[in-house]
Design a protein that fits this description.
With 174 residues, the chain is mainly α. It has a single domain (3-167), classed as Up-down Bundle (Ferritin), CATH 1.20.1260.10. Helices cover 86% and strands 0% of the residues. Helix 4 (97-126) packs antiparallel against helix 5.
């Protein structure tokens, strides 16, 4: 293995461990959101489905890491999970929590998309065909979720505005 191949392999493994932590963070963000949603069943249903996809993505990442005789970083997983939990908690005290969650989820999906695209570039350049197939599936799921959030944002905004108008308060239920 040349120095370039070794460097690319190391970068890919580090990036894959980072992506594992990012997916753990996603779970720590989405799980509390689902528990609090009351007036947006479509959002709750889609988040539940994406939580299942995220668990599948974690399994794919673990499969890739195992193929390199390594595993995820418990420290990175814990650190990002904690920050995700804090973000979810911060939004829960906002009156317009559902809107803030929608904006944050949209941005986070694009962060994940960028992460998978970067990993795919490295995997293609290094010839890691198994990882390419697995990460392409995860990328497609993240793109579908981002598209769903994009398309549902008008509905969420209108429903929130209606609940606000009925209650006269920013504390309209999630």
């Amino acid at each position: 293995m040349t120095n370039i191949q070794e460097a690319l392999r190391d970068l890919f493994i580090t990036g894959t461990k980072n992506m594992h932590a990012v997916e753990k963070q996603a779970l720590s963000i989405m799980t509390p959101q689902v528990a609090r949603i009351e007036h947006y069943p479509e959002v709750a249903d889609r988040l539940r489905a994406h939580i299942e996809e995220t668990n599948d993505q974690l399994a794919r990442i673990d499969e890739v890491l195992t193929s390199f005789d390594t595993s995820a970083s418990a420290l990175k997983d814990l650190g990002l999970s904690m920050t995700g939990g804090m973000a979810a908690m911060a939004h829960s005290i906002a009156g317009d929590e559902i809107l803030k969650n929608s904006f944050a989820n949209y941005a986070f999906e694009h962060f994940e998309i960028a992460g998978y695209k970067s990993l795919l570039t490295m995997a293609e350049d290094a010839g890691f065909a198994e990882a390419t197939a697995l990460f392409n599936q995860s990328l497609q799921e993240e793109q579908a979720m981002a598209q769903w959030i994009d398309e549902s944002l008008p509905m969420v905004t209108r429903r929130y505005a209606g609940l606000y108008a009925e209650s006269g308060s920013f504390t309209a239920k999630v």
